[in-house]
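Q: Iron complex transport system permease protein, please. Structure only.
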Amino acid sequence: MSPLTTTAVRTAAPPAPEIPPGPARGPRALWLLAAVVVLALVTLASFAIGARGLALDTVWQALTRFDPGNGDHAVVHARIPRTVLGLLAGAALGLAGAAMQGVARNPLADPGIIGINAGAALAVVAGIYVFGVSSLSGYIWFAFLGAAAAAVVVYLIASLGRDGATPVKLALAGAALSAGLVSLMNVILVSSRDTLDRFRFWQVGGIAGRDWSVILPALPSLLLGAAIVLATGRMLNNLALGDDIARGLGQRVGLARGITALGIVLLCGTATALAGPVGFVGLIIPHAVRFLTGPDYRWILPFSLVLAPALLLAADVIGRVILLPGEVPAGIMTALVGAPVFVWLVRRGKGAGL
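A: Structure for Iron complex transport system permease protein:
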């Protein structure tokens, strides 16, 4: 073949496929602004609503002109750590869920599918049983290490074989590891009543009863994980096209998955340690925002960052008042709210494609 013919063939090669366009950029920016407004309103509701309801002007005065002798102001300040934790844990779960669905190319991916929740839970149980850990600040490090170890093991298992860590192999390896870790955890819990009593309050999932001593040590890993995941939007768009096409576009698939997985582990491990295994937040929100953003992860990730904490805080606020004088943990409320919404999203179908 002559050089001229070769040049013509190369010129005629079809362009690489691209992510299908979603809504126009202007409307997406407006929707993101609306999401921020919703989050601000839910945050104010978290300060104002509870067993002792407060007016919004009282909340504002407590935040801007705090009076230590005012009981209402003290209530608002007591709710600040709980609200901040809801914002941080919700944002972490939303970002991690969106990134996990992109990496695994699995619409049902969440922290449970690759064993992160099971690894964190087993590590917490081991910390309680072996080392006598009883504080939430102690749970953080055990849960984080357990989540990281589980993610590494799953990826190594899935990487075995000719095709590497494919989405199906990741899901199968995660499910198998989760089953084994849960079995080990149950062996410990059955043999130790004291460990069971301490663990069950964390296992339900919630943001009540936490203070700054729990939140502040977790900030570095949360911020680092969020920065990593937010920077992977273009990588996730390429991975969504399939490994072969992503490689054709110059993407180093293994490196992209590894970087994104690091961010996911940091976010999921820390959020699970702080709030327990809260479900559905990282599963539903990325599906819901695709109706507004289309399949572009450069928009899905920021929307998930904003709307996931709004869902978690809303669930927590509802749980405070639904069974007065007691309250329902946020982990239970997200399941009650999230399951019907997820069924509706699945039935709606078309807008939630990856």
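A: Brief note, in case it's useful. Residues 71-104 form the longest helix (34 residues).
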